[in-house]
Every structure is written in C-alpha cells, then in structure tokens.
Amino acid sequence: MTGTLLAAYRTMRTIRVFEERVHAEFAAGDIPGFVHLYAGEEASAAGVCRHLDGRDTIAGTHRGHGHGIAKGVDPKAVMAEIYGRTTGSCHGKGGSMHIADLAKGMLGANGVLGGGPPLICGTALAAKQRGTGGVGVAFFGDGAGNQGITLEALDLASAWNLPALFVAENNADAEATSSTWSVASDTIADRAAGLGVPSVIVDGYDFFAVTEAAGEAIERARDGGGPTLLEVKFTRYFGHFEGTQQGYRAADVAYAREHLDCLKRFRERVVENGELSAASLDQVDAEVAALVDEAVAEARAAPKPTRADLETDVYVSY
Ligand SMILES: Cc1ncc(C[n+]2csc(CCOP(=O)(O)OP(=O)(O)O)c2C)c(N)n1
C-alpha cells in the first residue's frame, strides 16, 4: 500500500509540475496551438487511473495531459507531442488536444466535447464481448455533460450493461459559463438515475474520496454490474486555455490553491497518519522536477515532422 500511495503522489505531482511548466513555456511563446491545463484536477485522473491496468481504456478531454500521464503515457512523449515533435506520442501530429497512446489504453485527448463517452462504449463493448474484464472510462467536463452524445452514451452503456465509468469533471465553468447557468439539474450526477445508472458525487480535492468511489465503480463494472457516473467537483487553476484571462474566477482559484489543493491535502494526511514520510515525498518532488526539466529539454531538441511524414499515420493498417 505504501508503494501504491507513493506512486499516486508521484502521478499527481508529475501532472502538477508538468502543467505549471507548460503554462510558463506557452507564455514564453515556445509551444504551438491551443493548450488547456489540468492543474488543480489531478486527484481525478490519479484516483481513477490507479485502479486501471492494461485491459482498460480511457478517453480524455481537451484538458487531457493529466489523463494520459495517469494512464501511463510517458510524460516525455506527452511533452514532445505538445511541442509538435516527432518523438511525441503521436509523432508530433496531434499536439496538446490529441495525445493518444493506444498501447497504454489512452484513446486520446479530444478536441470534441462529448467525443470520449461514445468511444469508450465501443471499447467497453469489446471488452465485454471478449471477456477480458476490461473497463472503459470516459472523462468529460460539466460543459460536455450537456452534449446530447454524452447522455446517449450513458444510455447505451446502461442498456447494454457495459463495463464503463463516466467521470464528470465538474470544475464549475465551461469556458466562462458557470455550470449553475447551464446545468438544469442540480447536479450532473442527478441525470444518471433517469438512465438506470448509479452515481456518486465526490470532493475532487480529496484524492482518497475519488479513489474510493472510483474503486467501487470499477469493481462493479468488472463484475458485470454495468456503468457508473462519478461526478468529481473542484476548480481548475488556470484559464480556460492558455492565454485567456481569468479575473472572473481569480478569487476562487486563489482560495482553492491555498486551502483545498489535492497535493497539499494528500501530503498532510499521509504524513499525519504516518503512512509516508515527508522525506519520501520530497524525494519524489525532486525526481519529478528533474523529469519535467528533461522532458522540456528533450522536446525542444527533437526534430519536427517533415513533409515526408505527411502521409504516414493517416490510416491504420489492419
Ligand atoms: C462539440 C464542441 N462544442 C464546442 C466546443 C468548444 N469548446 C471547447 S472547450 C469548451 C468548454 C468545455 O467545458 P467543460 O466540458 O466543462 O470542460 P472544461 O474546459 O471546464 O474542463 C467549449 C465550449 C468544442 N470543442 N466541441
């Protein structure tokens, strides 16, 4: 268990340092395209993905670096992809919003809101038919929860009793629209009852709450008990995408960083309970800082795709 907790801390810490660094590098003008950062939401990806293995698949969102890292995609390959380099997980052709690594069960970050839920209905159906015990997990935001396709996928997963988990990452805003304006039901989780799907709402700053709820849901899915909707509530630490101002939410973010932060709370709890030492956590912090430095240096030094690469990776060969 100690190893597992330390690994979970490493995952969350890696995502945090990675995202803070991408924020700085983007501001320096070094990174092309659109970038949406996941900082603040780490407990969701880490708490869910720690229950997953090679049988399982996940679909991320446009805010998807953390989902990939938590599912085991090499952070250096994620960084190189964000920089658009051939050493990236999609050989530099996808960028921040299209990071995929099928060998790791990461179907991809996705620029289409609601793009992930139907994809994991497919992988969950395949797992069910093949009897692999695998589970499909789709992460989506509160905004994407209002896409018809998300509700259709939830309905399909329920009707077909698929081994699936739908993780609504409710960070309270879709771009600059508060979910209190756009979500008609009191919660996203409320909607699941109408489709015969069990649901649970958790404090997204609390890694242990996420991990417990996700563990139950994933176990039920593996045992043939069908899908679950998990609503994880928190805020994001940066603007909608890099370059946007977030004056309208600055006070909430400052409060969350100071008083609610998932990494701070994790550290306090495990040290207080004597589960991990402060020194072991500091050691992880140092290793993660070095890893992210290397990831940026290697990404910068790697080649960009050339015209000759244009026609590769376009179609899958069967
Ligand atoms: C189908 C579709 N409609 C609109 C957009 C434009 N868009 C990109 S992100 C976003 C808001 C997403 O909010 P949410 O799902 O809550 O995720 P968050 O950004 O808060 O993580 C919108 C409207 C899109 N990418 N895809």
TrEMBL record:
<protein>
    <submittedName>
        <fullName>Thiamine pyrophosphate-dependent dehydrogenase E1 component subunit alpha</fullName>
    </submittedName>
</protein>
<feature type="domain" description="Dehydrogenase E1 component">
    <location>
        <begin position="11"/>
        <end position="306"/>
    </location>
</feature>
<keyword id="KW-0786">Thiamine pyrophosphate</keyword>
<dbReference type="InterPro" id="IPR001017">
    <property type="entry name" value="DH_E1"/>
</dbReference>
<dbReference type="InterPro" id="IPR029061">
    <property type="entry name" value="THDP-binding"/>
</dbReference>
<dbReference type="Pfam" id="PF00676">
    <property type="entry name" value="E1_dh"/>
</dbReference>
<dbReference type="InterPro" id="IPR050642">
    <property type="entry name" value="PDH_E1_Alpha_Subunit"/>
</dbReference>
<keyword id="KW-0560">Oxidoreductase</keyword>
